[in-house]
Amino acid sequence: MAENHDNVRILAVVSSDFEGQIQRHLSSSDMSPVFVRRPEELGDLVRNGEVYEVALLPAVLPEGIDWWSIWGELAHLTRRPAILVYAQSANFHLWAEVLDAGGYDVIAEPFTRETLREAVLRAAWSFDQKRDLGSDEDLPDGS
């Protein structure tokens, strides 16, 4: 299962004040987080053809950034990552919206290192299952 994953590549969209915590939680020999703060940075990674198993996104984006700009960039990745959304609180409405938009799951803050790592590993396992089954449905395009 997910625990046997060699090296999970994570695309983490986080604010600068939250990056340190996520870095501490995810930095290890079996996880490689790449941090971005703006859709433009995400676009650069997409154009480079990088593959990420998991995209870690905040439920509330900083002012000036909208969800569809992030979703649009993710849709251009060669392989769509499992999208894991983190939020200050998770309720059914948020969870349903994330799933409806093509996301994998929601994780509520505050989370421990173990909780975040387990969620990321489950998401990576889901990514691997889709690859093995040849299923990689497109993200909604917002229209």
Question: Under CATH, the topology is which?
Answer: Rossmann fold
CATH architecture: 3-Layer(aba) Sandwich
Query: CATH class, anyone?
Result: Alpha Beta
Strand element count: 5
Shape: globular
Alpha carbon gyration radius? 14 Å
Sheet having the most strands: 5 strands, parallel
- The side-by-side strand order for the widest beta sheet comes to 2-1-3-4-5
Structural class computed from helices and strand pairing: alpha/beta
Could you give the topology of this structure?
Blueprint: E1 8-13, H1 16-26, E2 31-36, H2 39-47, E3 54-58, H3 67-75, E4 82-87, H4 92-100, E5 105-108, H5 113-133
Parallel strand pairs: 1-2, 1-3, 3-4, 4-5
Give a brief outline of the structure.
The chain is of the alpha/beta class. The termini are far apart.
Walk me through what this model shows.
By secondary structure, the protein is α/β, with parallel strands linked by helices. It has five helices and five strands, in the order E-H-E-H-E-H-E-H-E-H. The protein has one domain (2-122): Rossmann fold, CATH 3.40.50.2300. 26% of the residues are buried. Residues 138-143 have low confidence and may be disordered. Helix 1 (16-26) links the parallel strand 1 (8-13) and strand 2. A five-stranded parallel sheet has the order 2-1-3-4-5, sandwiched between helices. It has helices spanning 16-26, 39-47, 67-75, 92-100, 113-133, and strands at 8-13, 31-36, 54-58, 82-87, 105-108.
